[in-house]
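Most newcomers find our protein records easier to grasp once they have seen one. Each record describes a single protein and holds just a pair of labelled lines. A learned vocabulary of local backbone shapes supplies the integers on the structure line. Nothing more is needed to start thinking about how sequence determines fold. The record below serves as our worked example for the rest of this section.
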Amino acid sequence: MTDEEILRTLQEILRTHINVTTPVVESTALIGDGVVDSLDFMNYVTRVEETFDIQISNDDLAGQQLGVMKNMVAYLRQRRG
């Protein structure tokens, strides 16, 4: 899966399951840019885990700044090997 495909999948999760209507690009910081609140962010993380069949630790979530789209894309690419 390419970075672009991962990003599109993440955008689809945000649109479909979190009801985000604002444009989300690689540089978007979901909470920092006011796209989602903390509850929506946790729902998003749960959907990402389900979609990509992974577990994201709290340490990874905070340490790798996975609220920033490009960081989540890189993390998922790395986890998928």
Q: What stands out?
A: The two ends are 10 Å apart (CA to CA). The chain has a mean pLDDT of 94. The chain has one domain: 3-18+30-80. Helices lie at 3-17, 38-52, 58-63, 69-80.
